[in-house]
Write a structure and sequence with these properties.
The complex is a heterodimer of chains A (about 150) and B (about 230). Chain A is α+β, with helices and mostly antiparallel strands. Chain A is built from four helices and four strands; from the N terminus they run H-H-H-H-E-E-E-E. Chain A has one domain (about 40-150). Chain A is elongated. The termini of chain A are far apart. Chain B has about 230 residues and is of the alpha+beta class. Chain B is about 30% helix and about 25% strand. In chain B, the strands form three sheets. In chain B, strands 4, 5, 8, 9, 10, 11 and 12 form a seven-stranded mixed β-sheet that branches. Chain B has a three-stranded antiparallel β-sheet with strand order 2-1-3. A two-stranded antiparallel sheet of chain B has the order 6-7.
Amino acid sequence: MNKKVNKKGQMHTIEAILALMIIIGIIAFAARSAPQETQIESSMDTQLMLYGEDFLSIFDLEDEHHTSELYDLVNGTFGVFKSNFSDQWNQTNLTERGVFYKLELYNGSNLQNFSAPYGEPPKNAVTVTRLVTLVHPPPEVEVYEVRLTLWYI
Amino acid sequence: MDDGQVSMDFLMAITIFTFGLVLLISQVPMLFAPLQTVSTDIQPVAYRTSMILVEDGGIYKDVDEITGETMIRSNWEDPNGTGKNYSQNCNDIANYTDNVTRIGLAMSTRELGWPSSSEDIVPNNLSVNKINAFQDWWGDSTNQSKIVGKLGLRVTYNDNQINYSYNISLRDFDDTPVNSSDPLLQIGDSIPTSGSVTVEKIERIVAIDNTTDVTNTTSIAGHECAKLVVCIWR
């Protein structure tokens, strides 16, 4: 029994596979090349960054004893902020406007989750940091990084 | 061997062409950026203006009458340290408003009353004296037009002068003005609400150093705080 092999069909299949690979490659390349964020997203990220930096800056305003609430937090004088961080954050009405936060403390080896009442941040969250230096009896100095991550919902 | 429907030459050519086209399109934002100054430059200007006001104390520049040396200070609201207000300084000091080369609202460490480890000014902590001087300056119709230059909002680009419009205010977190009946800081043009004008708004969280006679602020970490709202447009 003779079987007829359709050689044209094989060539069409190879063409189709090649064309498909080219199309997929171009789509993947275009998706990676496209701008990752719009102008509006850039403005929102800038505003989030400023909220975070301002908030940490106000918590770190120096008092006459040359410490601050942020210093006391890191130093463990109070274990928590003198005034609860979450309560202070809510004073700004930012949560009502859809801005949420997560606060962490990093000492160079361990990352301590300090306050995360709104869960884990999404990928497009903005993180601002502030260094706090604890001065113990010389020459002992400890540097901590306070990380405040903010995001819009 | 039979030919396919599409030649390899065509496939190669269309591949190279398409990659080139995609590469070109990906560069479009950079290609057109110089032609889109209005949409792309307002946000940085608003950001810079907020930085100048919140994180800088301002610059007052004059010449020492005895030594002839140029002196630069940040206490532009009271350069002689006499406790006088804006109007009195305008009357008593020659070229007072011209000597103010930049307006900043951050308080000086000299106002703290104790030796601070900060240098010269305290970012994010606004001086109520500077705020009052700024508000009074806006009310001075003779010198009001100078403010735009002191905030860095008058720039020259390709020999063309660009003037940005601005609206700057201090508001509590519920958006009511600080000192609602007599706003502590409310200056600038009316914000356009219609048309195709792009208005860029930046909010900064700030502390105010002395709130004895100030209402509508919120206590955060032991400091009386509010929002400095900066709106910029062209």
